[in-house]
Amino acid sequence: MVVFLGSNLMKFLAYCILVCFVTVPLVEGRVRHYKWEVKYEFKSPDCYKKLAISINGRSPGPSIIAQQGDTIIVEFKNSLLTENVAIHWHGIRQIGTPWFDGTEGVTQCPVLPGDTFVYKFVVDRPGTYLYHAHYGMQREAGLYGSIRVSLPDGESEPFSYDYDRSIILSDWYHTSTYEQAAGLSSIPFVWVGEPHSILIQGKGRFNCSTLGIEAGLCNTTNPECTPYALTVIPRKTYQLRIGSLTSLSALSFEIEGHNMTVVEADGHYVEPFVVQNLFIYSGETYSVLITANQDPSRNYWASAKVVSRNSNTSNGLAIFNYYPNHP
Ligand SMILES: [Cu+2]
């Protein structure tokens, strides 16, 4: 009897040791805790005032910045009053945590108004990822953001740069997402048409003078729609992570006078190649290297414009801003 117990105990211990070695990740990551509140607010991302969904008052929401192997905890409160929410972590594999993928109706029940939900998952691969709402048309209403996963301390990518930055491209409609959803599911079908503006990091510029009766909602002097400025130090190299979460538009992104070297696509390193403009489709991410090697006494436009469609959508513009008087 004692012998029998002893051999079972040995087997049990061996099993424990095996399980421990298999399941404990090789890289001991940190825990990154985020506390978010999701709500509707009037915003003027392209100078036209409209309801948008924000996280902690912002759209795009806060960036998640982590290192490979870290555990991300997002505790979020749904303060939308009448709508459910779920948030999908786009490109994150959710190994061992499929229930935190955030696809409403597939991997979880939606989070009800007033409720708080906690997502907890490990970012197991370095790269550029996104997050966005996965309920109704809330992504189009502004509920999205970026996820940047860098390598653990002491490891470096197969390319070099001085600073790391992220931007998200999106398209923006002035019509409400409710009106769009009703039209798309009506008989006869009502098409949403072309977006009014392209946004770079949540900012665009609509030509208010083209509006009739709604002109009062549009104000180009509103500081909310001043273009996003990416400030750079002369001669430094920037890794710029670019993601697109458009609803309809395929985009071409470029920075006046600067080449971009593509080094990563959708979380995978690529053989570096140089481009003047980057074609990017919804759901894609790219990392490019840009060296601030032009005349530092002026600034340069970054632009995102619609390709492959006949549209009169206002281009997205941002400023590639040389740090003033930097030696
Ligand atoms: Cu997605």
From TrEMBL:
Question: Pfam families, per this entry?
Answer: Cu-oxidase, Cu-oxidase_3
InterPro entries given in the database record: Cu-oxidase-like_N (IPR011707), Cu-oxidase_2nd (IPR001117), Cu-oxidase_fam (IPR045087), Cupredoxin (IPR008972)
Instruction: Describe the location of the Plastocyanin-like domain by residue ranges.
Output: 38-150, 166-324
Q: Which family does it belong to?
A: Belongs to the multicopper oxidase family.
Query: What's the name of the protein?
Result: Cupredoxin superfamily protein
Q: In which organism is this protein found? A: Forsythia ovata
